[in-house]
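Holo model, 5'-O-[(L-methionyl)-sulphamoyl]adenosine. Inputs:
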Amino acid sequence: MNNEPYYISTSIPYVNGEPHLGHAMEFVLADVIARYHKQYGRDVFFSTGTDEHGGKIMESAEKAGQSFEAFTTQNSQHFKDLAAQLEVNYTKFIRTSDPDHEARSALIWQALGEHIYKSSYVGMYDQKEESFLTHEEAREIQKTDATRYATFKELEEENYFFKLSAFNVPLIELIKSDKLKVIPNARKNEVLSFLESGLQDISVSRPADKISWGIPVPGDPKQTMYVWFEALMNYITTLGYPNGPDYARFWPANVQVVGKDITRFHAVIWPAMLMALGIETPKVLYVHGFINDANGEIMSKSKGNGVAPSEIISEYGSDAFRYFITRHIPSGEDGNFSWERFETVYNTELCNELGNLVQRVVSMINSYEGGVIGNLPESMHDIAPYHDFFEDYRFDLALDYVWTLVRGLNQYIEEEKPWQIAKTEDKEHLQVILAYVVSSLLQVADLIQPVLPHTSAEIIKTFGEGAIHPEAGHLFPRINKYTQPGKQ
Ligand code: MSP
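Output:
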């Protein structure tokens, strides 16, 4: 046990629409990591929040006929609600429209000093991604996606630039040496090859007459900070940069969790900003993949294949949702969701393998031993591989490993046949067998705690006090809404 500080963040989603499965996935992964470290004694600061400025959100608010403030407040609340539904225990939820973030971002801008200069920008702007594109980059997209290209705006405007090019060599060194470790390795290589192709300075403001919903550039109210530039700053403004006690205690971040589409912002622009400020860079950037539908297509409402996370959670519970995301979307890669797949996993692994095991053990101890568990032996399982997988950000493999224990216990019961021993006089042997299973189940409860907090607490409540605690019913009642009974 050590209570060293541990800082973890998620990216901050845009509030132009409803939270979707991708957002839920990022919340869950970060929460699993946060709970894991809390469990072993770390003092965890877990930050999340919402990204609320910029043209995309202005347009959505206007379409909805609402003020920017009302629109962003309402939508930001939906992300908080989702976090609550998912049992995501963040320490702080930052909104980029918070006056505190605005004031601290202005301080950061000023601290960047000579790294920012004024010039004129000629190029394209992709409002959907809130990103500046060169004509060449835009033409590349046009070749494969003419519809998207049609939404790009031609820009010719005065704005401020950040001297990103000055950090090209230090960034290569930073990433290559793993001083900022980009996980998985495929993402690290991608970043390195991008860096090796050479960096240009980037625009970091927009004229205020075009983008009024944002943070004014200090000393030049005719310019608004570029939404990405100030959004990235949230990772330190939320800690109270430059002088807050949380900043002193928790920075640099131990890990920042982001999706693959925003790797460059976090592995290139953000560390360069930090270097320009002369402050430390995060230790790890963990990049997760995308969650797609059963055909590998990105899920979205407009495609008609979108599923609201709340629909799944209300049907199967938050633990089951967290479990599916953590084990069945391969860590660091893309994965698929379908109702059938979800329900099959739920029935096979949670209902049959774990839930039924707990029920069986409860009923055997109740009927053969009057509910008394007796002395517990030490559990003998080697759990080092589980911790190694966690340290490697392979949460899927960590759970696979726990499930080898769960399956092993089911098999042990089948082989030992306590119901036969119960018919003999060998009560001691029976007690030893059942106590061994209970001790292993308590160990399983510990190991699943970051992912399945309710289930873990239920198992501990049931077996943790020497006698069976009255059960609250099956942990995962069978559901056959999308699959045939008996199919799993
Ligand atoms: N506002 C920016 C992030 C700023 S961080 C300083 C943004 N917002 S977003 O709403 O578009 O995306 C938020 C997160 O959700 C990103 O990490 C993104 O990769 C993730 N996902 C969006 N769609 C996703 C899936 N379909 N699957 C998994 N995650 C995906 O980018």
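The longest strand covers residues 116-126. The two ends are 41 Å apart (CA to CA).
Archived with the compound record.
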